[in-house]
Specification:
By secondary structure, the chain is of the alpha/beta class. Helix content is 26%, strand content 22%. Strands 1-4-3-2-5-6-8-7 form an 8-stranded mixed sheet, with helices on both faces. It starts with 5 loop residues before the first strand and ends in a 17-residue tail after the last strand.
Length: 227
Amino acid sequence: MTSFRLLTVVPLLALAAASPQRFPQAQRDVASIVADEWSNEASRDAAREAEQVMVFLNARPGMVIADIGAGSGYYTVRLAPRLMPTGRVIAEDIVPAYLTALRARVRKAGLRNVTIVQGTPDNPRLPVRVDAALLVHMYHEVRQPYALLWHLRGSLRPGGKVAIVDIDRPTAQHGTPKAQLLCEVSAVGFRRIGDLDLGAAGGYLAVFEPVGKRPEPAAIKPCAAAK
């Protein structure tokens, strides 16, 4: 029998320690966390949201994908079967109650290739390096975006990517303007390599890859709020 446990310890990766105070703060509104899901799952499936995203990312068996801000697990339970038999999902969130419910959902579904991780607002604390980190309708809720992206960059395998789904509207309205997102992610040493309009599902998918050397936290230049 495979056991599932909530990981709350320091990650196994030997990442450089960096205090959140060393990173610049977001210069724009940060939305509050109000629910563990963006919309009901039936409507999202009807609009082929997850299918579009997984196909665009070429999610396939053997990959390790982190579901950052996993919430109720909409993407976790759809990714896990797609990555079998040798791949797995690292489902991360910072809200303990969400993780408790997600652990139960994963057990009920019999998904044995999911690892549940409790992160912090500045660091997802991933226990292994990943091929992709997926942030869905939650980037606007990240209070320390530069710190989070910096740690994610250190958690990527060679060729790894960060993929962000959001809506092109102000962060105070639970979205992220595309220009704002591009500026903030670029500030941590990423370049955009792909975009997808999600159509009826709402919003956009933006995919980034690291380029050059990861900047020192104090050298990161914060972006002004989009007008």
